[in-house]
Amino acid sequence: AGQYLLVIGGLDHESTIHAYDTTTDTWA
Predict the structure, then answer these.
(1) CA Rg value for the chain
(2) Is 22:5 a contact under the CB 8 Å cutoff?
(3) Are 5 and 20 in contact (CB under 8 A)?
(4) What residues pair up with 23 in beta bridges, in sequence order?
């Protein structure tokens, strides 16, 4: 597991929470 960045909303401007893994450069 790497470092995760939690993004509320995001590009879809919805109330969903996205987790971005900065180690693998992928969205979880």
Answers:
(1) 9
(2) yes
(3) yes
(4) none
What is the predicted pLDDT for the residue at 16?
A: 67
Global confidence as pTM: 0.31
**DSSP string across 1-28:** ---EEEEESGGGTSS-EEEEETTTTEE-
The structure tokens 């919805």 sit at 14
Over its length of 28 residues, how does the chain's per-residue pLDDT go in tens digits? 567 777 766 566 565 667 777 788 877 7
Residue 15 vs residues 2, 5, 8, 20: alpha-carbon distances, Å = 24, 16, 6, 16
